[in-house]
Amino acid sequence: MNRLSVLPRGFGSFKSLEILDLTYNNLNERSLPGNFFFIETLRALYLGDNDFEMLPGDVMNLRNLQILVMRDNDLLTIPREIGQLTNLKELHIQGNRLTVLPPEVGALDLIGNKQVLRLEHNPWVPSIQEQFDARGAQGVMDFIRSDQYKYFYGRQEVITGPVPPKRNKDRKLSRKQPHQSQCA
Length: 184
Prior knowledge:
- By secondary structure, the protein is α/β, with parallel strands linked by helices.
- It has two helices and five strands; from the N terminus they run E-E-E-E-E-H-H.
- Strands 1-2-3-4-5 form a five-stranded parallel beta sheet, with no helix packed on it.
- The longest helix is centred in the C-terminal third of the chain and has 19 residues, at about 125-145.
- It is globular, with a radius of gyration of 17 Å.
- The protein starts with 18 loop residues before the first strand and ends in a 26-residue tail after the last helix.
């Protein structure tokens, strides 16, 4: 836990970086340098417990990415471009403010014994929540692959409802002050 709120400009120029864990910081979409999503060797990206409201579409450039952890942020949307991450085997987006998923997520291979899709603790629209309650992540994936959902999603982009409120993050580890000794 570093409490980072911005990354240095040259951060995206690491040529052999495979695993990057930036969990428990104060990062958001404006904190990342322009070349961040061009780390071609990156296989695992951990951005959980930060302050992201959106994931830039440039995420599609992380072609070798297998694990993406965005849990416990403030995500309102997932970009359509995420469907181009064909090597992705784990997607952790639980604990955000997501109400819908782009149909392109349905193109990903995220269901099975060696894959992980975490969706819980989001204020999903009723049709997604019903699928999740009935059949878990498999039900949601089947639903977002349907023509019915693609039609719904297209209309949902035009008719947006109220933005879900931010969650209270006072208990978030990166927000806590370092423990000070009371010794005299």
